[in-house]
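Hallway conversation turned thread

IA: we were arguing at lunch whether anyone had actually written out Cytochrome c oxidase, cbb3-type, CcoQ subunit end to end. Turns out nobody had. So, for the record, here is the sequence (71 residues) and right after it the structure tokens. Reply here if something looks off.
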Amino acid sequence: MIVQFVMTHQKEIYLVVTLLLVAFLYGYVYHLYSSQAKGVKDYEKYAKLALDDNLEDEPIEPRKQNPIKGK
């Protein structure tokens, strides 16, 4: 029954799924740009991670100590 429904409405299902994925992609891109513009997170630092990946390189963000583990 479900297989028959999918077979008969295959084009419509494909269109809906494609539109949902496009909307999700644009929403994610908007989130990245808006959070960088607000100063919440600087994603360009993470883009440099591929270039600066030696052990001697400076970390992107300071490491936070876990107060429970440090005792």
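OS: looked through it. The helical segments are 2-8, 10-38, 43-47.
IA: good, adding that to the notes. Residues 21-50 form one domain.
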